Amino acid sequence: MAKKTSLKAATRVETGTGRLNQMRRDGWLPSVIYGRGTETKNLKVNAKSFTELLAKSSSDNIVINLEIDGEGTRLAFLQAIQHNPLSGTATHVDFLAIDENTEITAHIPAHLNGESPGVKSGGVVEQYVHAIEIICLPDDLPDTLEIDISGLELGDSLHVGDIIYPKGVRPTHAADVVIVHIGHAGSGTETEEAGATAAAAATTEATASAASAATPAAAPATKP
Question: 192 with 186: CB under 8 angstroms?
């Protein structure tokens, strides 16, 4: 399971592009926390500390003990990161205020393990889904989903419904979405089309699920 990490934060009153850019130059990362039953609050976190936090994590799905100066510690989920389109550095962060009983939605990296007999026979591994959207409680959030392909022969596939998920974790994708297939080497266009179809199906399913599921909170309409 993913480990909770701590991050110090402070409230901020600065708003507006000019002031926020100056804040970034001073080493701060503008952020906001919101959630059901929680007042939306503008925050700032140390940019270097946040970058180090991301570097130590296997994905952006992080449960954080957010230590807000003068207000105590709040449990939060890293909801969204905005990046500079040129440098790629983080420019703004959204935190979702949660508690131990709040279900969260996350995209967890799918790691393939084992050696497929089909590959030994000359086949190739075709992974169509590299991150699986799941729903779980904060304490059940996995770092990765380990997928064993050691039983796959040439032509076999593993679907979302074939995977054994950690306790408390359930996928949002349809059970028949293909995660990985052992294809024939040089299958060319057919392989590409199959991959595109599987990826599109997974994306569509996840989008529909996210739209229909009851989420713990909605992001504020606007953020400074």
Answer: no
* 61, 141 contact by CB (below 8 A): yes
Mapping DSSP to helix (H, G, I), strand (E, B) and coil, where does residue 140 land? helix
0.90 exceeded by pTM: no
Residues 67/6, Cβ–Cβ less than 8 Å: yes
User: pLDDT tens digits for 56-102?
Assistant: 887 888 999 999 999 999 999 999 999 999 999 999 999 999 999 99
- b vs e for 102-129, b when ≥16 Cβ sit within 10 Å of the residue's Cβ? bbbbbebebebeeebbbbeeebbebbbb
CB contact burial 23-32 (16+ within 10 A = b; e otherwise): bbeeebbbbb
Which of 9-23, 86-100, 137-151, 190-204 has the weakest average pLDDT? 190-204
Percent of the residues in the chain that have a pLDDT greater than 70, as a whole number: 82
Would you tell me how many other CB atoms lie within 10 Å of the CB of residue 60? Answer: 12
In angstroms, rounded to a whole number, what is the distance separating the alpha carbons of residues 130 and 35?
Answer: 29
What pLDDT does residue 149 have? Answer: 97
8 Å CB contact between 66 and 35: no
